[in-house]
Amino acid sequence: MPNFIAQDGTRLAYHVRGRGEPLVVLPGGPMRASAYLGGLGGLDAHRRLILLDLRGTGRSQEPADPATYRCDRLVDDVEDLRVHLGLMDMDVLAHSAGGSLAMLYAARHSERVARLALIAANPWALGTPATAEQRLAAARLRSDEPWFADAFPAFEAWLSGAAGFDPVIAPFFYGRWDDAARAHDARGDEETNEEAADRYGSEGAYDPPATRAALARLEAAVLVLAGELDGGPRPEVARRTAAAFPTAEFAVQPGAGHYPWLDEPAWFVRRVTAFLDGRG
Predict the structure, then answer these.
(1) Pick from 9, 110, 131, 264: most CB atoms within 10 A?
(2) Minimal CA–CA distance to 25: which of 93, 126, 114?
(3) What is the side-by-side strand order in the sheet with 11-17?
(4) Partners of 15 in beta bridges
(5) Within 10 A of 158 (CB to CB), how many other CB atoms are there?
(6) Residues pairing with 221 in the sheet
(7) Which domains are delineated in the chain?
(8) What are phi and psi of 192, to 5 degrees?
(9) Pick from 206, 210, 236: which is nearest to 224 by CA?
(10) What is the DSSP string of the chain?
């Protein structure tokens, strides 16, 4: 397993899939091991995916200082990976919570980002994360689904803080609740470092005004892609994320949830490769 040593001595692992120009991939969760990303629906047929296991997840070592799980502290790990790979600059794809890490990296190391693809990125770093109301509005779009009647009350209770996460709500995160989605969802708990997830967005992690100011000067090409049925973020939230960049492409994948490469792999790969190849 390829690995490198971060500035604080923590050994970090990454996985390589496919061939071609490298694409550094930052996972979400937060703090979920990169295995859930797989080959991103076949994107690995077009790019060499460099899938980072964030510290304390997957094959990466737990740090001596748990405070380094905080999102802004993880920026140094991404930069250390770039140096390890010998890249002057790099294309970056980030999913979900990883989008905030990618935005903080781009804000601090703008000259090192060539292209940035934000996939279903919940924009905590911009101070505009998905709200409970937005998530419920997206959930109501699924009212015709056979699982909706059981899942929606549990979803409301979870969002209000009245109850913990109930596995019955998992279908809301997928465009189709089929066998592939069930298998993908079943892996979630075992791939996530819960302690690290709690620290990821802890106090001091984000400075939205400073991040917005830095990203407003970013020269890199940016794609913000949202799933039509996703609640975190809704397409309208993702559109506002795109507006934080001087020039950004915005796309909504029809019928997709929070994992668009599972819902319609061909559409996802076609749109992302067009962006990465500069074809819009």
Answers:
(1) 264
(2) 93
(3) 3-5, 11-17, 48-52, 22-26, 90-95, 113-119, 221-227, 248-253
(4) 51
(5) 18
(6) 115
(7) 3-131+176-276 (3.40.50.1820)
(8) -110, 135
(9) 236
(10) --EEE-TTS-EEEEEEESSSSEEEEE--TTTB-GGGGTTGGGGGGTSEEEEE--TTSTTSPPPS-GGGGSHHHHHHHHHHHHHHHT-SSEEEEEETTHHHHHHHHHHH-GGGEEEEEEES---GGGT-PPPHHHHHHHHHTTTTSTTHHHHHHHHHHHHHTSS---GGGGGGGSSS-SHHHHHHHHTHHHHB-HHHHHHHT-TTS--HHHHHHHHTT--SEEEEEEETT-STT-HHHHHHHHTTSSSEEEEEETT--S-HHHH-HHHHHHHHHHHHTT--
Residue reference for tokens 């060499």: 48
What does the pLDDT look like over 49-84, one tens digit per residue?
999 999 999 999 999 999 999 999 999 999 999 999
**Site of tokens 């990303």:** 37
Cα–Cα dist 146/233, whole Å: 24
Q: Are strands 3-5 and 11-17 parallel, antiparallel or unpaired?
A: antiparallel
With 0-12 / 13-18 / 19 or more C-beta atoms within 10 angstroms meaning exposed / middle / buried, residue 267 is middle
Tokens of 129: 């994360």
C-alpha span between 269 and 275 (Å, rounded): 10
CA atoms of 80 and 7, how far apart (whole Å) = 7
What would the pLDDT profile of 123-157 be if each residue is shown by its tens digit? 999 999 999 999 999 999 999 999 999 999 999 99
* Residue owning tokens 């140096």: 83
Measured from the Cβ of residue 154, the count of other Cβ atoms closer than 10 Å reads: 18
State how far Cα 20 lies from the chain centre: 22
Please give the radius of gyration of the chain, using alpha carbons only, rounded to the nearest integer. Answer: 18
d(CA 13, CA 56): 10
pLDDT band at 38 (very low <50, low <70, confident <90, very high): very high
Instruction: Map tokens 């939230």 to a residue.
Output: 237
pTM for the complete prediction?
0.97
